[in-house]
């Protein structure tokens, strides 16, 4: 008898079918990967196992855990199972943790509830579990609050809560989606270690086939509430018998079609340093760097004449300090330096990736570029105009020329407003305000550019899928025809098929509009696919930069080497599993 047995599971919510005849089994000590696009039913399958279904849900079929009928068990029995025999790790740790309780309280809470241990014993067991997941007492006392931890550290706390009572089954729903590749590798190794040590079963839900190939013993592929294919991981993902499995694998390795560059982008790519300008590649090694540094401008020849090429964006010796955490009433800690002496230039039409581990300063630098935060030192200029120290009124022309695409489009939209208002919000930055008719025409044309219909103007954000909402976010960013777009993890929350479509859209807009991009990402596959150059950031500094292919194929700095080594790769993962099987 398997640890978890799901047979002919069907589910509808309010009469709408969600799952159709799902079969799935997990043995003790086995890792089962569950993959598929958004809306395929992965998370609903997991919530059915936990019996955490929404109101109006009706499930039929058989779900048995360790011989217990899950669908027929009373709520009191399920309360005993959840957290004790079945643990769950959710995708977003900040929403899974209570912000007003310390991490020690939250890990100890389940221990006290299920075992009846006193506070001291529960806290001792909580301390041991936090040590086990890589949060030692010296740096992470039980008195810490969730907001004082990074994303990866918060995810470790969630895993500690889920595994504190050594459950027989752990359900992990996209546990590493929002983490950088180094943290992702650490979390996955932690989960595998817990499986090996405690012989628990693990249901790993992910849209990343490379992660599933690297972790799982078996894989189940779902689409529209049905199981398309199931089997041993290496064989299933290498043979790709089912067309949908093949489609997912191709989308995972998708590279946007390279089109002829726009004139502005071609000029940026053809830039070369003038004689006498030192070429630098990393802080430690010498090598070619096809971009000006420290505000240098390289003269470019046109029709036999010398002229000075004006960079679109210049970041010169930028520093950002934050006040240190006060340890006592009379002692002030030194400030924390989030960005440390960063300099680079961006040419019109150029696409650059900014990569690095969580907490390295990427988002802080992006906020200063967007004039949402002021640097402590240094200067940032857009089209030759300094952004430092300018009022909001003075920044209006610059704001028209730079826009942002966020990681979570739904979180950046007001759910009470229709798409017409959301997309048209930046139009107030134009010098000449369009009339009502012209405004609708502009919004309709922009929606068409990003692959949506003009009729979508009259809908609300909740009526769209995740990929469609990201298209709306991109439409809002390009409607003023900006020169620069900062994209902060724009595809990390999307499944592989939708991610491929959004990357193609970014490539199309780069060609049609000549817009320059700064892609903030922890996904090196995205950086390789969409950008011309890459900058590697570590502890507030740019430690390596150059052409994307060169840096990712031959990293020189320790930080870049760590990112490349930790990045999941589908081909490599399948080959490793096949080799293990002989």
Give the count of helical stretches. Answer: 22
CATH H-level superfamily of the largest domain: P-loop containing nucleotide triphosphate hydrolases
User: What's the CATH C level of the largest domain?
Assistant: Alpha Beta
Roughly how many Å apart are the termini?
A: 28 Å
Note the topology.
Layout: E1 4-13, E2 16-26, E3 31-35, H1 42-50, E4 57-65, E5 68-69, H2 75-81, E6 86-89, H3 93-96, H4 103-115, H5 119-132, H6 151-163, E7 169-173, H7 181-198, E8 201-205, H8 209-215, E9 218-223, E10 226-232, H9 233-239, H10 243-252, H11 263-269, E11 299-302, E12 305-308, E13 313-322, E14 336-346, E15 351-356, H12 362-369, E16 377-382, E17 385-386, H13 392-401, E18 402-405, H14 409-412, H15 419-424, H16 436-449, H17 466-478, E19 484-488, H18 496-513, E20 516-520, H19 524-530, E21 533-538, E22 541-547, H20 548-553, H21 558-566, H22 570-580
Parallel strand pairs: 3-8, 3-9, 6-7, 7-8, 15-20, 15-21, 18-19, 19-20
Antiparallel strand pairs: 1-2, 1-4, 4-5, 9-10, 11-12, 13-14, 13-16, 16-17, 21-22
Description:
The protein is of the alpha/beta class. It has three domains: 1-79 and 169-179 and 200-252, 3-Layer(aba) Sandwich (Rossmann fold), CATH 3.40.50; 86-166, no CATH class; 264-324 and 333-413 and 487-573, Rossmann fold (3-Layer(aba) Sandwich), CATH 3.40.50.300. 37% of the residues lie in helices and 23% in strands. It is built from 22 helices and 22 strands. Strands 6-7-8-3-9-10 form a six-stranded mixed beta sheet, sandwiched between helices. A six-stranded mixed beta sheet has the order 18-19-20-15-21-22, with helices on both faces. A four-stranded antiparallel beta sheet has the order 2-1-4-5, covered by helices on one side. β11 (299-302) and β12 (305-308) form a beta hairpin. α4 packs parallel to α6 (151-163), α7 crosses α21 (558-566) and α9 (233-239) crosses α22 (570-580). The longest helix has 18 residues, at 181-198.
